[in-house]
Design a protein that fits this description.
Blueprint lengths: L17 H9 L4 H8 L4 H9 L4 H5 L4
Helix pairs in contact: 1-2
């Protein structure tokens, strides 16, 4: 669905970084570089961004 507001493991707020992450990835930057620039150093936070799949558009089709 949408990115969680906080990391589920450490509790660091991460939702505000999601749009910046998406913009930088679309520009062609490598994910590791983007995560470093955003200040995500912990493995739990990095894995949250790397494994997240945005399903909002797909789920929105079934909502009336």
């Amino acid at each position: 669905m949408i990115i969680p507001i906080r990391c589920m493991t450490c509790g660091k707020p991460v939702a505000h970084l999601w749009e910046k992450y998406q913009e930088m990835i679309k520009k062609g930057m490598k994910p590791a570089t983007v995560l470093d620039k955003l200040g995500l150093e912990r493995y739990c936070c990095r894995s949250l961004f790397l494994t997240h799949v945005d399903m909002s558009e797909k789920i929105g089709k079934f909502k009336k």
